[in-house]
Amino acid sequence: MHRLAAAMLVLLCCCCLFLATQQQQLQPAAGGNRASPSCIPHERDALLAFKHGITSDPGGVLSSWRRDGRHDEQDCCRWRGVRCSNRTSHVHELRLGRGGTFPPEYLAGQISPSLLALDHLEHLDLSGNDLEGPTRRLPEFLGSLKNLKYLDLSEIPFYGGVPPQLGNLSRLQFLDLSNFRGGTNSTNLSWLTHIPSIQYLNLGGVNLSTVADWPRVMNMLPSLRALHLSFCSLASANQSLPHLNLTNLEELDASQNSFHHPMVTSRFWNITSLRFLHLNYTSMYGQFPDALGDMTSLQVLDLSFNYYDGDYDDGKDRIMTMDLKNLCNLEVLNLELSHLYGDLAELFRNLPRCSPNKLQELYLGWNHLTRMLPRWIGQFMSLVVLDLGRNYITGHVPYEIGKLSNLTNLDLSINKLDGTITEEHFASARSLQYIGLSYNALKIEISSDWQPPSTLEYVSFASCQMGPLFPGWLQWNVSIAYLDISSAGIADRLPQWFSDAFSNVWFMNISNNQLNGTLPADMGSMSLQELYLSSNKLTGQIPMLPPNIQTLDLSNNLLSGPLPSATR
Ligand SMILES: *[C@@H]1O[C@H](CO)[C@@H](O)[C@H](O)[C@H]1NC(C)=O
Ligand SMILES: *[C@@H]1O[C@H](CO)[C@@H](O)[C@H](O)[C@H]1NC(C)=O
Ligand SMILES: *[C@@H]1O[C@H](CO)[C@@H](O)[C@H](O)[C@H]1NC(C)=O
Ligand SMILES: *[C@@H]1O[C@H](CO)[C@@H](O)[C@H](O)[C@H]1NC(C)=O
Ligand SMILES: *[C@@H]1O[C@H](CO)[C@@H](O)[C@H](O)[C@H]1NC(C)=O
Ligand SMILES: *[C@@H]1O[C@H](CO)[C@@H](O)[C@H](O)[C@H]1NC(C)=O
Ligand SMILES: *[C@@H]1O[C@H](CO)[C@@H](O)[C@H](O)[C@H]1NC(C)=O
Ligand SMILES: *[C@@H]1O[C@H](CO)[C@@H](O)[C@H](O)[C@H]1NC(C)=O
Ligand SMILES: *[C@@H]1O[C@H](CO)[C@@H](O)[C@H](O)[C@H]1NC(C)=O
Ligand SMILES: *[C@@H]1O[C@H](CO)[C@@H](O)[C@H](O)[C@H]1NC(C)=O
Ligand SMILES: *[C@@H]1O[C@H](CO)[C@@H](O)[C@H](O)[C@H]1NC(C)=O
Ligand SMILES: *[C@@H]1O[C@H](CO)[C@@H](O)[C@H](O)[C@H]1NC(C)=O
């Protein structure tokens, strides 16, 4: 017994000694950085063979990968994108992708099987490169890099099936095969169940149309934190699961798949750990599930563009009956174009009512919402985006909207609002950049010397009653890029300050007013690309036009004289 222990001790010491001498040998002779590893020759050869498979490297990403040159230049651990272990000197990481540390310079060619010699490789990122090679197949041999924990092959334009050999990568935690450029598919995902440690999985764009049991497969990956299955041609999401194992899942993106079944029958609603849920463009119809009200971890919920494109009865009167009052973490709610009917105030009553209220972005545009904007809208103090455009909302715009001091985007366009908009509506709107009030029955009464408390960039007041004077307040504190004040009842000359104050505007529409007088002589200094001034009463000659103008409509005016010659 003792003898055995002694023998083991000797053996251990020998090992230590061996390791120590090896370590010494690996250190740079000139006693430089003690921690800096030095390349193992056969791994350097493997990397050079990989480089041999690269046919195009316009960014010179691999220019540091050289066999010749100074001693330190031959050290592959110092090559760009290569990381070695400090302890063993083996290559541990190869970061040559978009997700790596480099700007997106791309490589073209093929992935050489020589990589198999890097049998300690843990991290391989080749994303975004054109490394599909002549066969365009995702190489099976990558399944033999058994130590991989991280594999990113996204946006390499592979074609054809995903090899089940990847299931041999049993230590994998991160796998990104998303591919919106190529045409990859998989008919059976059961190989994934051999990778129980996987935490991040992205198969975006991979055609999974025949994988009916995908929820069952994913349910066998209990470590999953993020699952991205956008645009996978998944046929449905309604298979029943006896027990839900996905208790760690925080991110789920199944957007852009046509499920064509009622929303309540899909199986996403029990995953209460979810923080991000993207189900936009999934052709699910019918009521929203009540269970949403218990998904209290949700920060982002995107159910937008959910309408059934076939025959349906169920989806026609979708009303937001679910109670989201307890979703105190919700920051983004997107229900744009999702066949929402009903009373807007009723909907607002079901939104998170927490203190502090974290709701920052609310998209309800392109629906059938009716009735009035509630006065207590001011309670949603964190709102940054409020999009209610293209509904049937009636009544006045409450002054309380001006209390939303973080609001940058406000879209109320194409509704049935009436009443008058005054300075008071913007009293504390210190952040407003984008404002859309077009196509309502609104009157805008804002004094010419009033200065907006924020720098407006996008202003759309089409068919609001603004005239008869040209709205003078638009000259103050604005940096407008987009201006639509068409059909606004303006019967006035274009102001003196026109070219100056609007020097950054690229889109301008003031058509269908009663502008009279001449066009400003100094228009040539403006940045306009699109200018619509048709159906006014402008007179005189056409001056030098803005140099970047692409679309110009001056029709139905009283202009005369020649067209100016080419402005460039
Ligand atoms: C390896 O060495 C480098 C440079 O000396 C150091 O930045 C890095 O943290 C070390 N890595 C490990 C895992 O010790
Ligand atoms: C998957 O791709 C391969 C190769 O292109 C093709 O032969 C096969 O039919 C595809 N399977 C499906 C279900 O699209
Ligand atoms: C890898 O997986 C394939 C198919 O799943 C299997 O046939 C093979 O034996 C596994 N092992 C290796 C080393 O490829
Ligand atoms: C998928 O492959 C596994 C293993 O090869 C097999 O047991 C299973 O029946 C297949 N599933 C389907 C739906 O074909
Ligand atoms: C996915 O594959 C199926 C079956 O091969 C095919 O009918 C469908 O068009 C494919 N989807 C896409 C988006 O290419
Ligand atoms: C997950 O749940 C299913 C039941 O749906 C069960 O059969 C399976 O063993 C579970 N898998 C894991 C990995 O926990
Ligand atoms: C999901 O939740 C519903 C109730 O909301 C429950 O009836 C069902 O059993 C749950 N399913 C799973 C798989 O946990
Ligand atoms: C799931 O939805 C599909 C339509 O996408 C439907 O044909 C099928 O019957 C549904 N299955 C269940 C279990 O509800
Ligand atoms: C669906 O939602 C995701 C996340 O919000 C977004 O990145 C994506 O652009 C959306 N898809 C479409 C088609 O709008
Ligand atoms: C407004 O935005 C600022 C800066 O992002 C933030 O610190 C503040 O908490 C926000 N106010 C509210 C009420 O959310
Ligand atoms: C102009 O807008 C900025 C914010 O963009 C604001 O800080 C400033 O107070 C505004 N000026 C006036 C006169 O309101
Ligand atoms: C422009 O129209 C206004 C209002 O109709 C009118 O008072 C003014 O005299 C007109 N000016 C010119 C130059 O026609």
TrEMBL record:
Keyword terms of this UniProt record: Cell membrane, Glycoprotein, Leucine-rich repeat, Membrane, Repeat, Signal, Transmembrane, Transmembrane helix
UniProt subcellular location: Cell membrane
GO cellular component: plasma membrane
Residue span, Disease resistance R13L4/SHOC-2-like LRR domain: 185-388
Pfam families linked to this entry: LRR_1, LRR_14, LRRNT_2
SMART domains noted in UniProt: LRR_TYP (SM00369)
Ranges that cross the membrane: none
Membrane topology: Single-pass type I membrane protein
InterPro entries referenced in this protein's UniProt entry, alphabetically: Leu-rich_rpt, Leu-rich_rpt_typical-subtyp, LRR_dom_sf, LRR_N_plant-typ, LRR_R13L4/SHOC2-like, RLP23-like
Signal sequence, renumbered to the chain: 1-20
Domain Leucine-rich repeat-containing N-terminal plant-type: 41-85
Family recorded in the similarity comment: Belongs to the RLP family.
Protein name: Leucine-rich repeat-containing N-terminal plant-type domain-containing protein
